[in-house]
Design a protein that fits this description.
Layout: E1 4-5, E2 10-11, E3 14-15, H1 17-30, H2 36-44, H3 53-65, E4 71-73, H4 76-88, H5 105-116, E5 117-119, E6 129-133, H6 140-154, E7 160-165, H7 168-185, E8 192-195, E9 198-201, E10 207-212, E11 225-229, H8 238-246, E12 254-259, H9 268-280, E13 289-293, H10 300-304, H11 322-334, H12 336-347, E14 355-356, H13 360-363, E15 378-384, E16 392-398, E17 406-415, H14 426-432, E18 435-438, H15 445-459, E19 462-468, H16 474-484, E20 488-490, H17 495-510, E21 514-515, H18 520-528, E22 530-533, E23 539-542, H19 552-574
Parallel strand pairs: 6-12, 6-13, 7-10, 7-11, 11-12, 15-19, 17-18, 17-21, 19-20
Antiparallel strand pairs: 1-2, 2-3, 4-5, 8-9, 9-10, 14-22, 15-16, 16-17, 22-23
């Protein structure tokens, strides 16, 4: 029978960080009606903690499990690791470099829970797997490094420890964290040693090595303790399964999956969280897994109440600066691309891989212009050379002296065979002059050249720089050069090239700086376009799940901004 005293925060007459954390979370809920300044003071003084409903459910389940006769509770092993970390481990990164690693309450509570629940029948540790979902910049690598170091020095002899991730560089982050802590702990290598194969305990013969998708040596291991970092990047479970299978011969394996949310749909993390939440909510029984999730209760609360930020960021104000998060929120409110990234990485709000880029309110602009205004001007040209049977877009961007406004002249081209397609009112657009019809089943690229020639002859609009994607470009580029003397450069359609220009397009739309004469084909393309965000916050345009929706007009606008960023200074000197 486990002796629990919630009032004194003791289990079996020993102080429990789990109970302390739980009670402070309850006080946090009770403080909801207090003034924000008072709540903030209580948080900073360590009197309360603010957590989300998912973590509260986890804590409530654990408190209830203290009454379950299947378990007994022994925190001595956890205390040993906590004491080791706070006594021998030091921080490895600025601004805390060289300072003692003093654990936060949530970190102590987590370590205590992992190691203290034990099976009454066998005496073995209950939890074999941990899912820790936490916002970025909350000391994730540091706590993993410290816990790994404690396990390395305090765990069973002959243990194999693994630092793992989808990417070898990511796996190196925690591995290097451990090694730096080791060097501070044992500078003369009397107890430990590192070589190219790994880190070794000379006394216990335990080892620490890296494992990633690129190491190609995932079989034949016998792992006791594994950290899987940033699993949101993994499309499949190959690495995780190889770890779990290698632990099958162990009585007390431990596999810690620590990550932020990501952008891959139906990948490994989605499957793990789906399963973990079923366990958390009592829909599935699996006593071996600990699901510890720092999540928000809603997306709306993030923008309405700063105090809720603690739910996904338990180290807010400790190693994650409030001013930083304020600036991130400000960016998220201004830019859709930043919003997607911040919600996923800072607040663990799952974002779909395809998120609409622009809203109607962004692209609404009643301003119009007449081409005559730009007689004799230079402009940038861009063309999205689609497959020959698709809608094709070509645009020209012109700016006036001493103005940040961008004026867009556009023309679309479509094969005659596509006019009756139900995906858009192409025939109506052809009759209105927005789209040029090409006879037959293919785009006649010479008509794109003719359009540029018409702009030159009728309005004296000349092309300063031109760009296109690489698709089907060779013949048309040659024609543009020979007939009009326009050198069309290839613009790579990758995130590194398109990300910043795409963000600039969004910002200029919001500021009303893009004048496109409310072209209906443009509007259709703009609203069809989704953005995809990668782990570095880079973005690029993609279609939605509806493959009939075209985004060609968006791509040509982004290409124009690629050229504008490259040559803006030169261009403004000739306008």
């Amino acid at each position: 029978m486990i002796d629990v005293n919630l009032t004194l925060n003791t289990i079996n007459n020993e102080h429990s960080y789990l109970l302390e954390y739980y009670n402070k979370a309850i006080k946090g809920l009770d403080s909801i009606n207090c003034a924000p300044v008072d709540i903030k003071s209580l948080i900073e003084n360590g009197e309360i903690v603010i957590i989300g409903q998912e973590l509260m459910t986890c804590l409530e389940n654990l408190i209830n499990d203290l009454d379950n006769p299947d378990y007994y509770y022994d925190n001595s092993i956890a205390e040993l690791r906590i004491e080791f970390i706070e006594t021998f481990c030091k921080h490895t990164k600025s601004p805390f470099y060289g300072k003692p690693f003093l654990l936060e309450l949530w970190e102590k509570a987590l370590i205590e829970v992992i190691y203290s629940f034990r099976w009454s029948e066998t005496g073995l540790r209950r939890f074999k797997k941990v899912i820790l979902l936490i916002g970025r910049k909350n000391g994730k690598s540091a706590i993993c490094g410290a816990l790994s170091m404690a396990e390395f020095m305090c765990g069973n002899g002959g243990s194999d420890l693994i630092c793992s991730s989808n990417d070898d560089n990511q796996a190196s982050i925690i591995y290097d964290e451990i090694n730096t802590m080791r060097e501070m702990f044992d500078p003369k290598e009397k107890r430990t040693h590192k070589n190219q194969k790994g880190i070794f305990n000379l006394i216990t013969r335990s080892s620490i090595k890296k494992l990633s998708d690129r190491t190609r040596n995932k079989e034949g291991r016998n792992i006791d303790f594994a950290i899987l970092d940033e699993s949101h990047e993994m499309k499949d479970n190959i690495i995780a399964k190889s770890i779990e299978q290698s632990q099958s011969t162990k009585d007390e394996p431990l596999f810690i999956n620590i990550t932020t949310e990501g952008f891959i749909n139906d990948g490994y993390l989605d499957e793990e969280l789906r399963y973990g939440r079923e366990v958390l909510n009592g829909e599935r029984e699996d006593p071996d897994i600990l699901v510890w999730l720092y999540t928000q209760d809603s997306e709306e609360e993030i923008f309405q109440d700063e105090l809720t930020w603690y739910k996904a960021n338990p180290n807010l104000g400790v190693c994650k600066k409030r001013a930083y998060l304020v600036s991130q929120i400000r960016s998220a409110q201004a830019k859709k691309s930043d919003r997607v990234f911040v919600l996923a990485k800072d607040f663990n709000v799952k974002q779909t891989s395809a998120t609409r880029w622009l809203e109607e309110s962004d692209i609404n602009n009643d301003a119009t212009f007449d081409y005559e205004e730009f007689r004799g001007y230079f402009g940038f040209s861009s063309t999205d050379l689609s497959e020959t049977t698709d809608l094709t877009s070509s645009k020209v961007l012109i700016m006036k002296p001493n103005s940040n406004k961008k004026y867009i002249i556009q023309k679309y081209f479509i094969p005659e065979s596509k006019l009756n397609s139900k995906e858009a009112p192409y025939r109506e657009w052809v009759e209105a002059g927005y789209v040029t019809k090409c006879e037959g089943n293919d785009i006649d690229y010479s008509k794109i050249t003719q359009w540029h020639e018409e702009l030159r002859k009728k309005y004296k609009i000349r092309i300063f720089k031109a760009g296109c994607d690489k698709w089907n470009a060779k013949y048309w580029r040659k024609e543009m050069d020979e007939k009009l003397g326009i050198d069309v450069e290839n613009v790579p359609m990758d995130k590194y090239t398109l990300s910043n220009p795409m963000k600039s397009v969004e910002a200029d739309f919001k500021d009303g700086l893009i004048i496109y004469n409310n072209n209906p084909v443009d509007r259709w393309c703009f609203l069809n376009t989704c953005l995809k965000v990668d782990k570095e916050g880079l973005i690029y345009p993609i279609k939605s799940s509806d493959v009939t929706q075209r985004i060609d007009g968006s791509v040509t606008l982004i290409i124009l901004y690629v050229l504008l960023k490259r040559y803006r200074t030169e261009y403004m000197n000739i306008t």
